[in-house]
Design goal:
By secondary structure, the protein is mainly alpha-helical. The chain has 6 helices and no strands. The protein has helices at about 10-25, 35-40, 50-75, 75-95, 100-105, 115-120. The protein starts with 10 loop residues before the first helix and ends in a 7-residue tail after the last helix.
Length: about 120
């Protein structure tokens, strides 16, 4: 498209900078090595924005592992629950708005597994 993208002022870049600041404050290279206990120990030393963005990243690590376990066990209700948690965290902690998932997830509230089924990811009886 030859459209020049300016990531320096993009929301993505600002979220990444938040995470990098928190990692630096924790004395680690990336948030991959952080825990919520570590983050909570510096909460008063960082901005609320940085805290909530880092919180999402740290909690998402656990959600991904839980989803892997749930998929291996065929536990699609847990997968659906974790999808809701990710959507909530993305929207409110990480400040990413996604219209498509905002429309799909509420419709599947009666059965979280239906969210996967709606996208063709699994067969739900």
């Amino acid at each position: 498209s030859r459209v020049k993208h300016e990531l320096a002022d993009s929301p993505y870049h600002k979220r990444r900078q938040s995470c990098e600041r928190v990692a630096k404050r924790l004395g680690i290279e990336t948030l991959r090595d952080a825990t919520m206990e570590m983050l909570d120990s510096i909460r008063t030393d960082i901005t609320a924005e940085d805290y909530f963005r880092a919180k999402f990243v740290i909690e998402e690590k656990s959600r991904v592992l839980a989803v892997c376990d749930a998929l291996n066990a065929g536990d699609y209700e847990t997968v659906g629950k974790k999808m809701y948690e990710t959507h909530h965290g993305l929207s409110y902690d990480y400040e990413v708005r996604n219209l498509t998932s905002s429309m799909i997830l509420p419709r599947s509230a009666e059965s979280p597994a239906r969210a996967l089924w709606a996208e063709g990811s699994v067969d739900v009886p």
